[in-house]
Amino acid sequence: MPHKATTYVNSLEQRTYKNEIKSEVYKPTYATDQKDTLIKNVIFLIGDGNGLNQISSAVLANGGELTLSQLKSIGFLKTQSSDDFTTDSAAAGHRFSHWHQDLQ
Predict the structure, then answer these.
(1) 85, CA 20 to 30 Å: which among 28, 31, 38, 59?
(2) Mean pLDDT, to the nearest integer, of 82-95?
């Protein structure tokens, strides 16, 4: 079995990828933070299928920063279907988009 570890380590260079292209990171000014005004819009981003591992990998691949990592407020939500371990994307998106109607 140790020979498999050697084979793995020796072939690692051929099986890895290093990102050479960095995405520009938007840096918000937060000029409207703490203002006593009515909120007009909320931008709701759904990273379908991504979690902390994917976000961390993207940050590392982009030189340590993403626009997502510049946000002051970020939330995470775990959903689960009533009859399966994984929630279907369409069902989850529908729930998010109709939450106010469902509360009434």
Answers:
(1) 59
(2) 74
